[in-house]
Amino acid sequence: MWIHDTNASFLSCLLLILACSFSLPGCGSPTGKWKASDFFSGTSLELVEAAAAGDVDTMDQLVSQGADVNAAGQQGMTPLFFALWARNKKGFTWLLEHGADPNVFVLEEDSVMEIASLHPDPEYLEIVLDHGGDPDLVHPRLGRTPLFFAVDSRHKENLDLLIEAGADLDHQDRARCTPMMHAALLCLFDSVNYLLEAGADYTVKGVNDLTIMDLVVGESRSAANNPERLKAVAFLEKKGVNLEPHRERARKVQETQDRIGREIRRQTGREP
Fold first, then answer.
1. Residue 21 pLDDT
2. Is the residue at 136 inside a domain?
């Protein structure tokens, strides 16, 4: 149950969402040490090794002999996910063209859509969206869609592709954050502005009625003079939003944070 004091309640809400914002996408994310034989054997192993090498002639031959492009290896690993991890665009594309499913989860919670949305090369995301990738596939633990991971990628092209594919701009994750709130919590105000201009709803309420307005008006030391933050404030004011109540709320939160910080420093002997 949330504490009923306004300052403490809002601070508790913000800390919860911050904790969720910085949680890792998946415990089993690629490590750089995988081998196809860690997950596959037999004909499936041959197919995966060929895909990782971009050897489409061998892939053609193996599939004609009955190899399954959607074979599930250990921990649910798929040939498509492995080809993406191996960064072989040729093998990756061939698998999609021959019916590989990009919307399954491997290693319990990772997906091709998630990794493609995080990828520095937007062509992977473009290819997968062209072959049935779900722009609103929900992460089973975090409750996030690919748009959240595109925000994390810091690549505007990934946001573009998902928005063009019809991604839900206002989906709320398990912490009730939208992609725009997620961006604001990471101080990625350029992404906040991009989503605002794309039509994201700035009135959506998160826990304790938190909105993007509360996150944008907060003048923390790190963001006070951020020109992208000021641009977002101007956008909202132009829309006729009265930001003063949100500024007051943000000031109270900052006062509470400062007070807690002073108390921690005092108790640890670090108060100047």
1. 44
2. no
